[in-house]
Design goal:
mainly alpha, Serine Threonine Protein Phosphatase 5, Tetratricopeptide repeat, 4-stranded mixed beta sheet, two-stranded antiparallel ribbon
Amino acid sequence: MTEAETPSIPPTSPRRSLARRLCAAAAVAAAVALAVCLAVRPLTSPDLGYHLAYGEQFLDHGRIVDHNDYLYTLPGPGEPRSAPGPGCWYDEQGRYRFANANWLTQVIMAGVHRLAGPDGLCVLQVALVAGIFLLTLATSRRLGTPGPLVAGGLLLAALTAYGRFNLRPEVFGYLMLAAQLWLLTRPRLGWGSVAGVTALQVLFVNLHSYFLLALAMTGAMLVEAVLHWRWPPRDVKRPAARRRAMRVGIVLGGQLLACLVNPWTWRLAVLPVQTLVFLRANKITAGPGQPHAHPWTAIGEFFPPFSEGFWQTGNTATYAFCVLLAVAAIGVFCCLWRRRWAWALIVAAMTATSLSMRRNIAPAAVVILPLALPVCWAVLGRLRHRLAARERRVVSVGFAAGVIILAAAIAIRVVTQGFYYREKSPIRFGWGLSPMHLPLAAARQLSDVPPGRVWTDYNTSSNIHYFVSPHPPVPILTNTWAYPPAVMQDVLDCSQGLLHFAEVERRYAPDAVALQNGYTSGPLIGQLSADPAWSVTLIGARHVLFRKNAPADLMITVERFDTDEFIARLTGQDPLPAAALYAGGMTLYQLGWDWHAAGVFAATVEHDPQHYEAWNMRGICLATAGEMLLRQTGNPTLLRDAITCFRRALQIEPDYQPARENLYAAEARLR
């Protein structure tokens, strides 16, 4: 921003100026601290095992792997080949290969894990988020955004993006975007900045496929630089404009060449474009509920944020995203008003990117806010001159104080788990590995009593293979690019009960099945539970392990199941016992063990009497047992207890339709 663009500020006394600066600094610190607080969480990613194992392969052998010889669901030599995913191919030996856009991220993660274990990974997670927000802070201050407004922008970015702060390769991509934006917005783009952006792009290409966004960002700045060179504004000299245009052009050229500096050269360079074409061609981003949908539609983060079923009422990130869209819209208008063509293009493009799919919201927030807020301040800040000096100080200090209070209030809710529990989020404030979300117990049993082949659902595969000791060479099973979409379709069809498991047994002859209870695998849990050929050998909050020909001492039967021991075990698996107990009750319900599930749901509502879903599920389990008791003895006691549970759920949440329907059905049966 030039001197002509910066509104004049009346002089203030040193004491008042110092007080305002301290208040603004405190607000900025509070916003950054909240972002860091939101990044302090246990590791829960379903891809964690894949990332660590891939990186370990490189650390141990110095080789970058792009195929998996032991994956028995891939077609063998001479077998029919299904269509590959985007950027994947079959080589001359018939191996299915893929360009891994995250390989360097995985090497870093594996190195940190080898040095410091899971705690080191949690530190890395926090450090990445802190780096992103510090770079965003530095860019915002450089562009002239006043401290209180910077604090508000950081707070909004944290609340918009916190759902994506898990330790995944994309967070490395956010860091690269923030760093490149910081360099590109320097008033004078020196050769050091040119070299820095190019070097960052080399890293970016090997860390995550979001590197395409960096090219778009630099391209927009080149458009503005050329326009200023050919038609310089009054406050821009032609030689300076020509020099900047040349250097931005060199940066873009360097970034394009950097895209080829990777183990797969052109294959990885074109992967983001191939993926976008693939998503559009298969209507994957059209949202859920499509007939004959592509298997990738099981990945919810590919859906637009406002698609049916993905508008999350009551979710802080949802409302924060709406505010972000409003800021972006005002920012584009102000950028055009101030003739900041590059910023207008970048903010508009990142807004469109965020609206295309949910996973793009976080990087959009990192880029939009540092560019939109300074021009909004420059244009709309003129209104503040209509206020007296004292009124301006009151507004500034009041806004900063509001950011501090809001950040502190949310941070307290985060630390005490209330923030996540209210939103029914699986995230927790904490450290280490999450025993509730990672199949650690199942992996330990498979380590102690190794089976032959293990069949898993889509969400469990990489972690169950990695945490088994010793684990297979490189479990790339949950990388969506690492196998043909047809294989994923078979896994989903089997897990959802559309393909009978007998067909899987005929093809692959597995000896153990590890499943995570959820909408993609719940039906298979019920199917195997009813199959006498399979025995349950482990039940956790969310995971079930089945074995064929299991040793007698490992078998768990409905008659011998100890509900009290199960409740005690789950209570220590989550900082919020009601969440773990409800998950465990749902797992027992999928197994068909309704009476035990009713006991676990009863424990759930003891910990959280307002848990209306648990009241409803306890009612369902009691109604099932009550129907049988009523038929056999004419005793309606359990059915009346079920009705009481449904009524309790509706007292807490009057609009909860499942409980209302269950209540009508139970009352009709009782009559």
